Amino acid sequence: MKIAGRDRVDEIQDENDEVALCSLYAGSETFGIDTRKIREVLGERDLQRVPMSPAFIAGVVPYRGEVLTTVNLRALLGMEAHSGGCCVLVMEDDEAAERFGLVVDAVGSVVTVSRRTLEANPCTLEARAKWLFDGAYKMETTLMVRLDPQKLCPSRLSETGLFKKSASGGIDASPDRR
To answer: Taking the model in full, what pTM does it have?
Structure first.
């Protein structure tokens, strides 16, 4: 099997060496999440905002008879709100037994990469980014940052202390302005 990984296509040595990532986008940045952690891609949805919720909570959306809390990736990254439509990925945190949605600008394709090509986060990343990112893969034309879906879980985001209270009582997910 051939996989993407560097300037050329590499051969996978062993089935345990490969990982399938769903590519997703926030602004011009490319991110990837292990496909085994994604339950479903809902596509564009209208979100109901939740009053007095943290800024990283995009809102709620109906999902198979449940109400699904959604996390806004752009807010976590300190980006401006997206003016166009957004996509919702349904994620499930097995450890916390919590199902939630991740709101992104767009969902791309599934890319298979070698686990060996994952590079560690640089030491210059701010604390929030270090916590959210698992590392990065160098692709042919871009860098794909790997996200840890368990760390995107709304209850875990609230517990971290990395997102400070804003003046309005919500959570400020923007970078520190010191």
So the answer is: 0.81
